[in-house]
Amino acid sequence: MDSITVATTPFDDQRPGTAGLRKRVEVFTQPHYLENFVQATFNACFPRNSTLVIGGDGRFFNDRAIQTIIRLGAAHGISRMIIGQHGWLSTPAAANLIARTDADGGLILTASHNPGGPKGDFGIKINVRGGGQASATVAEEIWQHTTNLQSYRKLDGPDLDLEQVGERGFHGMRVQIVEPVDDYCDMIEQLFDFDRLRALITSGFRLRFDAMHAITGPYAKRLLEDTLGAPAGTVLNARPQVDFGGGHPDPNPVDAAALVEFMNGEDAVDFAAASDGDGDRNMILGPGLVVSPGDSLALIAAHATTAPGYRDGLAGVARSMPTARAVDRVADDLGIPCYETPTGWRFFASLLQSERISLCGEESFGTGSSHVREKDGLWAVLFWLNIIAVSGRSVSELVHDHWSRYGRDFFARHDYHVAERERAASLMAALEANLPTLGGQQAGKLTVDRALRFDYNDPVSGEVTTNQGLIIHFTDGARAVYRLSGTGTGGATLRVYLDRHVTDAQDFDRDRHAMLADTAQAAVQLAELERHTGLSQPSAVI
Ligand code: G16
Predict the structure, then answer these.
(1) Is the pLDDT of residue 9 over 90?
(2) What pLDDT, on a 0 to 100 scale, did the predictor assign at position 487?
(3) Residue 504: CB partners within 8 Å, gap ≥ 6?
């Protein structure tokens, strides 16, 4: 087989965002597009003789992209590639493999929770040694390489068989095809009390897990059904499909509405959960109850030491800035530090790596810990089951116990899909310019206490990241946060996050949207949202 050098011209839209490069499939499948980005990534961070982990969530183009990456890698002089069988690896499983094999990093082929299929999205996450996502500095270097790449080298010839597990040579590169689930399950089994979990699950406790036709199906079947003894069929939509069954594989009340409806109905089981396209997000439900991501993080923090892997306690915790502040109260109680980071898992990875924190989470249904450098959907599910098994309390009892002790943080996210990016950008610019004048201003029933722009100074690397969202604090303690999504592939999504803490138990079971209505109205008014975006209603309320 020959290696050929292909002349190319740079693409001008390959700047990695919050989690790698995400584009529509039709963009990624243009001639040279994938090759350019992968070669730029190699040039920036994976020199000759690197070892890489490769795998993806099984979405459309996953298989073809892997074959291209293998050919580029062999021509570039990558010494070893560890690839998930069928081309599959969930994001946390890939992060685990990178750490366990001491690889230099990995490429995870996924656009996460974004829809898949020929008309859907494709993406590449770039993870570095230790398993965490590339830093902003590395992302910037990759971007620089994409802007001046003139050629790449690629092997010509037949595809590599991704079905046969085992090690083989491929034109000077060693390729190891690994069973995608084994290592991840070995790691997870060290963290939780599997005997207790098995006892709970075989005692008649009823659960359901919706894999949303995405990558967690095989992992959840192995863990919940094969290992812990849940009845066959506990895992729904378990077979990964290239288009995720036509759905939007995001575990939230809107995109997993069927599961929410089921848990609100008469046949509700004791516990339900769902995960996303690449297996790093989670949603936890009890009968009639969706646990908000901020509460889930706080509750795991409060009960952490009941799980074997966390017996020695937590070094610290972190949440992304827009996430409701429930975990702050637990950290305060435990006397451990609580960090507030920008959105993007890489900021947590830095704190995890330096052992400043052992647990973190974010409003977009991501929770994780020091066990891997990515968020991990199934890990959160097992943590919850472990808490239920040890405490003997139901999901609803646990949540209510928590609120009784710390108060409830109501939270909602209002997403506005704005067709023209400029309109969303102009809203943010105008609001930022107005921040100094907002203090004391009345907006509906609320008064602004203070307003600020969120900039972040990474305490580990010293890296400063500016412009990570705008925050308005109201005098009643509520907060509105404005931020532009970094993971969309068309137009812009303005996210408006609302949170409000209440301590009166009479309010705990009230409707969260009603409890946040005044905050939402004030947020719309202060940002002149309708004038800037032309939208009178959010496109989605999460
Ligand atoms: C990625 C990051 C998350 C982040 C999310 C934000 O998630 O890994 O840390 O919270 O993006 O998305 P947006 O910028 O759209 O608000 P994922 O699951 O898409 O990889």
Answers:
(1) no
(2) 81
(3) none
